Structures are given as structure tokens and as C-alpha cells.
Amino acid sequence: MSFKCQIPGCGKGPKSGNSYSHSHKATRRVFRPNLQRQKVAIEGRTQTVYVCTDCIKSGRAVRPIR
Q: Residue 57's domain is classified under what CATH number?
């Protein structure tokens, strides 16, 4: 699994940056998106995909009708 949101048009993935200690010494780190497994209706089909919480909250991840 690539650590990306699988909603078309989003594609939020990991970003790299620095973690700073108290002495302000920088070490490299990865900021990962908050992904949740969810059943989503994509192109008329129900799929279980990894979705970021931004897409869940904004309504881009449409839950299928039972």
C-alpha cells in the first residue's frame, strides 16, 4: 500500500521535513496523512480504500447506499 489518499483529486501523501529538538538540532522526519480504511462509492462501484480524514470531513468520500 502506498501511503496515499485514494480519492480521485486528493492524493494526499507523506511529506518530509525536519523534527527540531530543544536545542534546535534538526533531524529528518516524515509527516504522514491520517488515513482510514473506509468503504467508498467510486465511479459507481463500492470499494474499500484508504481515505484521508480531510476527504471524510469534507464529503469527498461518499459512503455507499446500503
A: 2.30.170.40
CB-based contact 27:18 (threshold 8 Å): yes
Q: Are 20 and 32 in contact (CB under 8 A)?
A: no
Tell me if residue 33 falls in helix, strand or coil. Answer: coil
Q: What is the mean pLDDT of the chain?
A: 93
Type of residue numbered 62: V
Q: How many domains does the chain have?
A: 1
DSSP bridge partners of 15: 31
Question: What's the predicted TM-score (pTM) here?
Answer: 0.79
Task: Tell me the pLDDT tens digit for each residue of 38-63.
Answer: 999 988 899 999 999 999 999 999 99
Q: Which of these, 36, 33, 37, lies nearest to 16 by C-alpha position?
A: 33
CB 36 within 8 A of CB 53: yes
Domain containing 24 equals 1-66
